Amino acid sequence: MPIRELQYPTESYSKVNRHRERADYALETIHGIVNSCPLLHVSFQDPDSPFPAVLPMMGQMGSFDRPSAGLGDVLDLYLHSYVSARIVNLVRASSLPDSEGLPITIAATHLDGLVLALTPHSHSFNYRSALLFGHAHLVTSTDEKLYALELITNSVLPNRWSQTRIPPTPAEMQSTAVLRVRITSGSAKIRSGGPKDGDKRDLADEELLGRVWTGVVPVYTTLGEPVAGGYNRVEGVPDETEKWRKERNGEAEGFATEAVKEG
User: Fold this and answer.
1) Quick check: 218 and 257 in contact, CB under 8 A?
2) What is the pLDDT of residues 191-202, one digit of tens each?
3) Nearest partner of 20 among 30, 29, 28, 10, judged by Cα
4) Which InterPro entries does the record cross-reference, listed alphabetically (predicted)?
5) What is the pLDDT of residues 65-86, one digit of tens each?
6) Which of 48, 39, 27, 248 is closest to 157 using CA atoms?
7) Is the Cα dihedral 184, 136, 40, 34 positive or negative?
8) pLDDT for 4 beyond 80
9) Using CA atoms, how far apart are residues 24 and 187, in angstroms rounded to an integer?
10) Which of 114, 163, 232, 248 has CB atoms 3.0–4.6 Å from 217's, for a disulfide?
11) Which superfamily does 20-261 belong to?
């Protein structure tokens, strides 16, 4: 019997309204977009400011209680921050008994291609985007904090945590804050494929078709050649790092190229 794919509830604040055919509420899809995004944009409301705040932050989905949980399982989002950062102070102030925590919204976006059409109106991007909505709490358990820091560190480079000087010193632990976000809902929106001009007159205009190039320019992040630091004493780049870098570059290029064929 097949296992049913878990999905986030389509709340009024998380539902995709425009281009609903591009929406995806599956946990695995949303968590995959978030975990592969180097920087997340986190928004929250500071009561002392007339405007919502938006911060670029590092984060990863995971489960401290079930470390082996997959992307399709119910997960928390862990965010790395500084102990006296504004968002941390707001979370700390909201951490009262029976409190849901600080409401925040998290956005993750990957740009996969520039879609060039006959008219500016029909230009677009190939992209994968995800939104998560939840409530943030401060992680106070040392074990859970170490779990989250290892999770986030290894998202930068696989196994990087174990290759460095660990564990963190008491001073490092004290100055670092980790937020756990309990997710209430989320959604993804994905566009792939080539240009889609909708005006039949343009598509029948031979002069226009012969003058304007249409198609997709794939976009992907390339990890460049590593440059040693000023006090580096290790000769050469570790084989594991170089292998991962080349594989990651190949996967990124392949993904952006395949996205052109989809849709």
Assistant:
1) yes
2) 999 999 999 999
3) 10
4) Pyridox_Oxase-rel, Split_barrel_FMN-bd
5) 999 999 999 999 999 999 999 9
6) 248
7) negative
8) no
9) 6
10) 114
11) Electron Transport, Fmn-binding Protein; Chain A (2.30.110.10)
